[in-house]
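Render Ubiquitin-related modifier 1 in 3D.
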Amino acid sequence: MVKVKVEFLGGLDVIFDKERTHKVTVAADAGSDVTMGDLIDYIVDNMIKNSNDRCVFIENDNIRPGILTLINDTDWELEGEKEYVLEDGDVVSFTSTLHGG
């Protein structure tokens, strides 16, 4: 079990009860590390209240293009994306770069 801080910025907070910051506890299968993939599954399954909003966050089983994903202020692509093993206290930020207007 891992406790992380998750931030939804750039308007993404709208699909998360308009809360920008969440403290999240994520578990994995017994004996397994908790990965970013586990966190993403948790977010989709437990935090997005309206199933119609899932497409705002997820596309083709991955974070939607146009959402900058950072792990402790580092681009998640440099950290291994879904394979990154989360640790207690990690800060994961999702920032939409797509704005309506």
